[in-house]
Amino acid sequence: MRRTALVLSVTVTAALVTTGVLTHNALAGTGVADTAAAPPAGVAPAVFSAMQRDLHLTPAQARDRLTLDGRAATTQQVLRTTLGARYGGTWVAADGRTVTVGITDAGQQQSVRNLGATPTLVSRSEAQLDAIVAKLDRQSSAAPRTVKGWYADLPTNSVVVLGSGAQGFLAAAGVDQAAVRVEATSEDPKPYIDVVGGNAYYIGSGTRCSIGFSVNGGFVSAGHCGTTGARTTQPSGTFRGSSFPGNDYSWVQVDAGNTPRGLVNNYSGGTVAVAGSTEAAVGASVCRSGSTTGWHCGTIQQKNASVTYSQGTVTGLVRTNACAEPGDSGGSWLSGTQAQGVTSGGSGNCTSGGTMYYQPVNEILQAYGLTLVTSGGGPGPTATATTTSPPQGGTWAPNTVYATGATVTYGGRSYRCLQGHTSQVGWEPPNVPALWA
């Protein structure tokens, strides 16, 4: 008997979660500052402006969107761990007002409501969808050229195959075709190699790509930019790892004299600081830095997407509607202060729009055992590291990172953290039994 799943919707509260990026630039102006148009504390003006332009938001709506995206990321982090196999994925609604999470156990409804959510029925869990994607990935060599990619589509609770003539491919993969939807597409994705996103670097005789994010000893970028052992210039270094196709990631160890920093070029005369690499939810806003097109923003459409380039299939990408153009390969994708990935490829451009894909940065960090360099100029935690909590026994506070096992006091009582998370207003210990006991 097929189990049903529940979906929950979380509505934005008035409290602001600081999810922006830091920069040394200040807003220029004359007379009294227009606080209504100013970005929230800690949010780079270039990012805040690009969000308004590309997502068609007012300043107030952009601030609300940053709040919602921060809540979505924390909700995803908590429920993915606490619900385990019962977790059905997280996404932000198209109107940017609610967060939706699928669960597969009706008995968890109260735990969900304790996080401010409303249950709704769906048919499949995230794990079931990912299992279908994995089967298609294993048969990627059998995909016809008319199939351009596939992905788990959380809002429709199905796996989408882009293209035509997919029947034989689906049969060879042995997937539940009732869970698969084949859609026509005009996409013709290509990896972007010629010019940079973020700062430029050069490979071999002059091929250019872009630096994604600084890591201990070097930087990460796209795998199609260079093979292991290839040399780079500006900055000078050596590819110590590269995977493409299958994946699209690489890391370059830079030579002595080059200093990795936790910054991204904002193409407004300054730099944007990187605070970490917390994964954003489907539907969350995301901004991309590229030397060809500057800052451009959009939303995360789907995760666990597979794309068939002429060189082969790349799996595990994130699909977005933020534009890019050839040469933005390897460039930086951020959601608020958080690093998300490096540009892989896509279709379209920044005049007519398009669909773009990025390789998640946490997978790169895990694959090579790297540490992200954050805004303080030193190394931040790796994707799998445990974050240190404030001193044991301290008073609970919002916007604070708590690790599993941390103890706090609230309302005269002591509580122990059951699941590591960043605290939010409204998630005080008595209100969220899933987090505190």
UniProtKB/TrEMBL annotation:
Do you know which InterPro entries this protein is assigned to? Answer: CBM5/12 (IPR003610), CBM_sf_5/12 (IPR036573), Pept_S1_alpha_lytic (IPR004236), Pept_S1A_streptogrisin (IPR001316), Peptidase_S1_PA (IPR009003), Peptidase_S1_PA_chymotrypsin (IPR043504), Streptogrisin_prodomain (IPR035070)
Record-level Gene Ontology MF annotations: peptidase activity
> In which domain of life is the source organism classified?
Bacteria
By its UniProt entry, which Pfam families does this protein fall under? CBM_5_12, Pro_Al_protease
Using the record's annotation, list all stretches that form the Chitin-binding type-3 domain. 393-437
Give GO terms for biological process.
proteolysis
User: What is the residue range of the signal peptide feature?
Assistant: 1-28
Alphabetically list the UniProt keywords.
Disulfide bond, Hydrolase, Protease, Serine protease, Signal, Zymogen
Q: Which residues form a coiled coil?
A: none
Q: What is the recorded name of this protein?
A: Alpha-lytic protease prodomain-containing protein
Top-level taxonomy: Bacteria, Bacillati, Actinomycetota, Actinomycetes, Micromonosporales
